[in-house]
Amino acid sequence: MRKSPDLPYILLFLGPALILVGIFVYVAVLWNIYISLTDWRGLLPSYRFVGLLQYKQLFHDPVFWTSLKNNILLLLLFVPGSILMGLLLAIMLDRKIKFEGGFRTIYTLPFALSFVVTATLWAWMYDPSSGVLNTLFEKLHLEFLESRWITDPNIAMYCIIIALIWQFSGYTMIIYLAGIRSIPIDHYEAAVIDGASTWQVYRYVVIPQLVKPTLSAFVVLMVFSLKAFDFIWVLTRGGPGTSTFILAIQMYKETFAKTNFAYGAAIATILLLMALAVVLPYLYWSYRGEKE
Amino acid sequence: MSKRRQLFVYLLIGILATAIVSGCISQKETTTPTTTQAQKEVLEIYHWWTAGGEKEAFDAIAKKFQEKYPNIEIKANPVSGGAGVNMKMILQSLMLAGKPPDTFQVHAGYEMARYIKADQLSPIDDIWTDDMKKNYPDVIEQMVIFNNHYYAVPINVHRANVIWYNKKIFEKYGIDPASIKTIDDLFAVAEKLKENGVTPFALGDRNKWPATQVFEVMLVAVGGIDYYQKFINGEISDNDPTLKKVLEYFVKYVEYSNPDHAAKTWDEACAMVYKGEAAMTLMGDWANGYFKAKGWKPNVDYGAIPIPAGVYDLVIDTFVLPAKAAHPDAAKKWLSFIGTVEAQNTFNPIKGSIPPRMDAPADPYDPIQKSFMEELKSPSTKMIPSIAHGSAVPEAFAADLNDIISELATSKDVNKAMTEIINAMKKDLIPNKIKEWKLS
After folding, report:
1. Structure ipTM
2. What gap in Å lies between CA B128 and CA B146, rounded to an integer?
3. Which tens digits make up the pLDDT trace of A196-250?
4. Closest partner residue to A153 among B15, B17, B410, by Cβ?
5. Of A130, A162, A264, B147, whose CB has the highest number of CB atoms within 10 Å?
6. Is B263 near chain A, with CB under 8 Å?
7. B252, exposed or middle or buried, with CB in 10 Å at 0-12, 13-18, 19+?
8. How do residues B57-76 score in pLDDT, each as one tens digit?
9. How many cross-chain Cβ pairs, A to B, lie less than 8 Å apart?
10. Interface contact B95, partner A, CB < 8 A
């Protein structure tokens, strides 16, 4: 790297922020890992080192496996779902339609709303007796589609995933719209001159150039899926039973309802590892990209 | 070399700047309040009474206290969040910082355990005068005694085991509420209503605890007081036949309830009774306040049936003295004050609860509350601490039960719930047990 004469100034302005982030993020993370190796249970800290005891208990805890399964479901369904929906919306909006701005606002609005608001809204949609969905199906004489939605432990998690995809599609749409618009116009013209159909233009010209936006959307959505706490908390409280627990909810319950701090810290550490597994490859990839 | 030194100096300036800025901020926070507090003694109180009637009830008692002690200024910090869920976290950070309030609200029983185990509360044996000891029922006293010391003063009594019913529906089907004494009587009535196409029970367990509350009522209704005592002491063994029967009764209750119970809250369940969509609901006596607020008249539009008869399931709010309270003298005056009839009869009629003191006059209360006070005084009434409201069992076990029972309410898998309850008992009740209950 070339030595920059501005380095002292950069450090002067970034220094305080770096120190604060260092203390409040990285020291806190290390502290959390340390706590997960102790037997802190109860109001006041206990720093007695017990090794991997909490992790051992965690792996024997059926609730942990339920939470982990739900986290993985979110990764497998919510992340690709939002990306596909966003891509579709972006392609549709890119067709030079009228009132594009209006549609853009409508699609992005859910993302601008607080999760507490949207979760409450979906709770009304899903209400089995007076909710929008069942009432609608009843009016259309499609009674066979009626369901217990979020009150049925077998499908509650999928209901949450659908609601989350609804909320995040607008966000991925914006990313993709920006990506599509940044493709040079002559790429299209060349394709059209060569006689490509609209489908072929998207298949061979547009989509291959959307790798970067897809990756950044991927990382944001994946990290969000690990901590979709507030949305699920408002919608179902993790219920019925523990059927919609995710790791963040189990961590909250263990730490604050059961004052089981070491156990909660162990769950937090596993969450951190999952987040790193997502972010580190991305960082590596983008660092290599910059070097090239 | 000089470049590196220069870098070092810049970094140092950065650190200093950060330190000065943060120093200024914290100094601002600490200096301003102390100057205004100089003349009056301050009493800082944390509580979670933020809803309509609750807030007025607290304001009324605070005003009474201030008339009595004009030199003490009450600084109330209401923290919203039902049953103090948010307040617990605030208290925890205050205690870790060594700056607890002078007194705070907490449910009697095990909810106090997290503070007592950490030596964060002072015993208040001197506050408990002979007059108080004589007038509080024994089980209520037992709920605030840990290691042979008093730790709190109860200000009110709520009751968790009450069936609230819509009088119009009962009259229409010729049901005599006085005939319902046991859980089997109740199910006979439920069957009759179901045959007539009426939903017998409204249930709303979206927040889980209402299901646990039904479970604890089944515990005492099916097993009796002795079994309830065994359960909360953690003395249930694997494959206990009574526990199985209790869980089957619980499932039966759910089957007589609205199928969308997991989407509803307790007050939405009360609304079903109010609108006539269901005949009854099992809920604490805060439902009484709900119906009155809707304009219903007690014993005219709706009635209350304690289930099982002769049992009083206690939910009690208390105040305590933190060990590191800044103004312990003012806090002790507050604690002594709320132990008086005058304070309790100012607070409870507005709050919708009844006084824990047996010598409090009953005139300010409605007919249902009067009958509850009568029952509380009767020597034949058995009192039990509530599980769902954090009194009877360690919080960790109560949190597990909430999940297990709310799952049972949808899965109806009795055997799975049984194994899970026994496991949770071994994992979260027995290791956290710090007192032995003696209910009879």
Report:
1. 0.83
2. 14
3. 888 888 888 888 889 889 988 998 898 889 878 999 999 998 989 899 999 999 9
4. B410
5. A264
6. yes
7. middle
8. 999 999 999 999 999 999 99
9. 115
10. yes
